[in-house]
């Protein structure tokens, strides 16, 4: 059908493409982008990375549409969203997609990190892949919480009050950070909103796309590790087998600066079409879920912000429930610092620096319990804290 | 429908006994019942884990363990179900009849689901018990049945937790079914018990394996001394009488195999016991917070009142559990000469200090002035504190954190030694096995103490704020609606 309709223009299109290709090298670029080897086993698990990228782009597009209506004003912000919700065609749907896109993105990026952790994909020479990925995770969380402060309804206002006060518990410099963010020490106001808005749409996205670029470059440089199951040897002479693998490897393998054993997967498939098909299926499925939830459930908009209220009980977004639970359980100024800033700060630092902390050569999860047991413990603790925190949502 | 209308029961003549006598009788039967029920629930989870591993890795040890644990569940269930019926029918109906009838009417549907799941449990458990060997050809189906059993037992626990948590936080007597299920302490209690049950099952497995290990070790030594000619012990004879050719060799092999198996099983159980207990401070803390926010007098009694001393005992038990776990891992690793023994020693010393710190009464501990002023009315971002354990902080928080981190290091150490193949099964010393028995005893005592604290925190109420032990009447009912029994008076 396409050929039928394009036949009259096909020659011109071909010559046009040739013109572009001679100047921009598009064919080579497409070949480089599509034809690379990926490990054969575990292809569905590797789709989480590309799904994360697709969801970030979806957030970018829906965010641009929201910017067409939203006014970052303490007095008019709520009204502009109310207009978008009630009077702008598809406005409520797009806003719902932005919210549900954020929820799904956090879930998917979390699963992607777990997959990378359990498969030891962060080990040499992929340490920087992990570091940039971990930073991206924190940037996504930062975008989520700064976005939750913008609608200027009760939930957003009180989220801003709580979150912008957290730096206060850091000794010596805490009040300075709080003042810088809020614009004034004790109260949130227009300056707080303006700065949070700037952080949400400029600062964090700029950093995020920088790190995405670095992450993708590193991925292409070292290739997808996959998991240890792709690297077992099948013959009685493993050294000979590994040598053959390295000699016959397809780009981007063999991975440089790693042991011979982990340099090339046993069997690979082409990124296009095998892996790209799986990536597309998962991404389309996730976008469909976001479409449906954005339309059916949408995004809530409660009462306009009222700083004078005495009855409103703020509740955090679900992905901050563990943090909120720790915050509630850690009593007193010093313990809030120790529990929330100290413990979570140290935890975050350990997470970012994981490849430099885990120096063992083993890749199978069962052979590296020194990271697997604490990792499982922390993952289970996060889930438990989320469930326990959600209990308060039912019993306000 | 209001609680006092649902609870309006005909006057009953209770069994003539004192309130103290009734409480003791109910307490004893309840604690035994809870220990058995939690063992069954927790062990069903471990059966699933072992059966799953045995399928995935073709591991005979895990299959044998799964079978052994399932048989254990079946035997204990026989006694436990009889006890449950005895407890429910004779003790509760006889001594606290008005309360129990009222409770049954209020939480009717959770009880109905509970009964339905009881039948499900019987069907699944005895299907597995009677057909374990026959189902060997259908391993995945057997695993599926084991998972179904664990799921059924979890829901059974969930529904009884609805009843138990409702008794502590009845939300002003709201009898709506959803309000009962979403009552403030239901979710924390369910999580607390689910995690605790598995830890408890692990501790019992460790103790049972320790006792079997000691017996197997004794037989092994007997057989080695006598080789094949004369057999001194009944155990060695019973281990060999069925062999045809060379009884001595077979007995030796069987005894050696048992020694290795029970050594491994004991360590496996201890890892689960300590590994799961690491979560309990967080979960228990959240549970206490909900009690503070929704049943303040009960919380006050636990943390500041006469039960605070019992709480000190309870946190001491917690410290001892971690201590015994680390002591066992240390001795077990030393017996095989693995790496990382020094770390276990350091962890042990830190745990001793943490236990002392945790068990320190509030008057001797360092406290923050604003902690004493803790109250739930002021939000934390306004300088207020929603701290659930009052003067127990910060020394107890620091101690609990230390216990969790030490437990994590200790468990990681022994699992790492195992993954490197450094633990030789059968090396364990006799003394290390006594430590495992001590661990199970301490976990049992802690569970009993925890139950005593929880049930006594709401006294004199059976349903908090609604019905007392003495009167078994509805306090907030309109005039004439309170159903006093002839033998009791208003408290």
Notable traits:
A: mainly alpha, two-stranded antiparallel sheet, B: 491 residues, mainly alpha, 17 helices, disordered C terminus
A few lines on this structure:
The complex is a heterodimer of chains A (396) and B (491). Chain A is an all-alpha fold and 396 residues long. Chain A is 66% helix and 2% strand.
Can you walk through the features of this model?
The complex is a heterodimer of chains A (396) and B (491). Chain A is mainly alpha-helical and 396 residues long. Chain A contains 15 helices and 2 strands. Chain B is an all-alpha fold and 491 residues long. Chain B has 17 helices and 2 strands. A two-stranded antiparallel ribbon of chain B has the order 1-2. Chain B is globular and about 70 Å long. In chain B, 48% of the residues are buried. Classes of the chains: A mainly alpha (396), B mainly alpha (491).
> Biggest chain pair contact, residues each?
A-B, 33 and 38 residues
Mean pLDDT of chain B: 82
Spans where pLDDT lies below 50 across 5 or more residues of chain B: 228-245, 374-392, 473-491
Largest sheet of chain A: 2 strands, antiparallel
DSSP strand tally of chain A: 2
Instruction: Name the overall outline of chain A.
Output: globular
Question: Runs of chain A with pLDDT <50, length 5+?
Answer: none
Task: Please provide the count of β strands of chain B.
Answer: 2
- Return the average pLDDT of chain A rounded to an integer: 90
Name the helix and strand elements of chain A from N-terminus to C-terminus, one letter apiece: HHEHHHHHHHHEHHHHH
Helicity level of chain B: over 70%
Q: Structural class of the secondary structure composition of chain A?
A: mainly alpha
Task: Using the CA coordinates, give the radius of gyration of chain B.
Answer: 25 Å
What is the 3D form of chain B?
Answer: globular
């Amino acid at each position: 059908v396409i050929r039928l309709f394009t036949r009259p223009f096909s020659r011109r299109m071909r010559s046009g493409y040739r013109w572009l290709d001679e100047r921009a090298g598009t064919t080579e670029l497409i070949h480089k982008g599509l034809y690379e080897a990926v490990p054969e086993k575990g292809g569905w698990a590797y789709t989480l990375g590309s799904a994360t990228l697709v969801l970030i782009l979806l957030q970018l597009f829906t965010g641009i549409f929201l910017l067409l209506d939203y006014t970052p004003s303490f007095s008019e912000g709520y009204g502009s969203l109310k207009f978008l919700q009630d009077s702008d065609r598809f406005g409520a749907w797009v806003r719902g997609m932005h919210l549900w896109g954020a929820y799904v993105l956090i879930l998917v990026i979390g699963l992607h990190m777990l997959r990378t952790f359990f498969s030891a994909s962060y080990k040499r020479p992929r340490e920087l892949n992990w570091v940039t990925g971990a930073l991206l995770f924190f940037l996504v969380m930062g975008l989520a919480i700064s976005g939750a402060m913008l609608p200027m309804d009760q939930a957003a206002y009180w989220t801003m009050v709580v979150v912008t006060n957290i730096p206060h518990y850091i000794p010596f410099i805490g009040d300075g950070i709080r003042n810088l963010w809020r614009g004034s020490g004790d109260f949130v106001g227009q300056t707080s909103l303006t700065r949070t808005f700037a952080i949400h749409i400029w600062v964090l996205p700029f950093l995020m796309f920088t790190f995405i670029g670095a992450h993708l470059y590193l991925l292409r440089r070292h290739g997808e590790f996959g998991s240890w199951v792709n690297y077992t040897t099948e013959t009685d002479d493993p050294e000979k087998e590994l040598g053959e693998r390295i000699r016959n490897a397809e780009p981007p393998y063999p991975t440089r600066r790693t042991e011979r054993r982990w340099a090339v997967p046993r069997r690979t498939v082409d990124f296009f079409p095998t892996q790209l098909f799986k990536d597309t299926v998962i991404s389309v499925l996730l976008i469909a879920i976001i479409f449906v939830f954005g339309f059916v459930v949408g995004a809530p908009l409660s009462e306009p912000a009222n700083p004078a209220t005495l009855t409103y009980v703020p509740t955090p977004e679900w992905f901050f429930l563990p943090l909120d639970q720790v915050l509630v359980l850690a009593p007193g100024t010093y313990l809030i610092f120790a529990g929330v800033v100290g413990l979570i700060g140290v935890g975050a630092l350990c997470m970012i620096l994981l490849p430099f902390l885990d120096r063992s050569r083993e890749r199978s999860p069962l052979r590296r319990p020194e990271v697997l047991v604490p990792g499982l413990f922390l993952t289970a603790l996060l889930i438990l804290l989320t469930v326990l925190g959600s209990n308060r949502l039912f019993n306000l | 429908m209001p609680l006092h209308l649902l609870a309006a029961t005909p006057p009953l003549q209770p069994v003539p006994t004192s309130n103290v006598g009734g409480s003791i009788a109910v307490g004893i039967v309840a604690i035994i019942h809870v220990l058995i029920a939690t063992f069954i629930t927790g062990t069903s989870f471990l059966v699933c884990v072992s059966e799953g591993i045995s399928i995935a890795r073709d591991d005979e040890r895990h299959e044998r363990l799964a079978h052994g644990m399932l048989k254990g569940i079946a035997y204990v269930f026989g006694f436990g179900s009889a006890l449950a019926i005895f407890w429910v029918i004779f003790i509760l109906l006889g001594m606290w009849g008005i309360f129990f009838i009222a409770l049954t009417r209020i939480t009717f549907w959770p009880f109905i689901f509970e009964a339905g799941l009881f039948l499900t449990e019987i069907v699944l458990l005895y299907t597995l018990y009677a057909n374990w060997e026959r189902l060997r050809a259908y391993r995945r189906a057997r695993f599926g049945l084991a998972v179904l059993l664990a799921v059924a037992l979890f829901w059974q626990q969930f529904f009884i937790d609805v009843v138990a948590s409702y008794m502590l936080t009845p939300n002003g007597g709201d009898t709506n079914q959803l309000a009962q299920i979403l009552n403030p302490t239901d979710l924390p209690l369910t999580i607390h018990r689910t995690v605790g049950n598995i830890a408890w099952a692990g501790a019992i497995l460790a103790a049972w394996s320790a006792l079997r290990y000691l017996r197997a070790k004794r037989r092994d030594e007997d057989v080695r001394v006598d080789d094949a000619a004369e057999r001194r012990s009944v155990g060695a004879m019973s281990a060999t009488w069925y062999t045809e050719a060379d009884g001595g060799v077979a007995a030796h092999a069987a005894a050696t195999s048992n020694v290795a198996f029970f050594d491994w099983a004991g360590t496996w159980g201890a890892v689960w016991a300590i590994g799961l207990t690491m979560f309990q401070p967080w979960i228990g803390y959240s549970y206490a917070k909900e009690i503070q926010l929704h049943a303040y007098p009960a919380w006050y009694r636990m943390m500041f009142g006469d039960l605070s001393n019992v709480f000190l005992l309870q946190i001491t038990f917690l410290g001892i559990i971690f201590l015994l776990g680390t002591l066992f891992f240390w001795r077990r690793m030393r017996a095989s000469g693995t790496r990382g023994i020094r770390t276990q020693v350091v962890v042990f010393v830190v745990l001793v200090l943490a236990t002392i710190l945790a068990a320190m009464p509030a008057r001797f501990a360092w406290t923050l002035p604003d902690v004493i002023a803790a109250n739930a009315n002021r939000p934390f971002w306004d300088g207020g504190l929603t701290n659930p354990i009052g003067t127990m902080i910060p020394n107890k928080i620091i101690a609990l954190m230390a216990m969790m981190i030490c437990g994590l290091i200790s468990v990681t150490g022994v699992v790492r030694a195992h993954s490197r193949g450094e633990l030789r099964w059968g090396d364990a010393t006799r003394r290390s096995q006594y430590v495992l028995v001590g661990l199970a005893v301490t976990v049992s005592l802690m569970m009993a103490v925890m139950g005593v604290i929880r049930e006594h925190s709401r006294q004199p109420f059976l349903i908090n704020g609604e019905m007392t032990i003495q009167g078994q009447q509805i306090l907030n009912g309109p005039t004439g609606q309170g159903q006093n029994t002839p033998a009791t008076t208003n408290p």
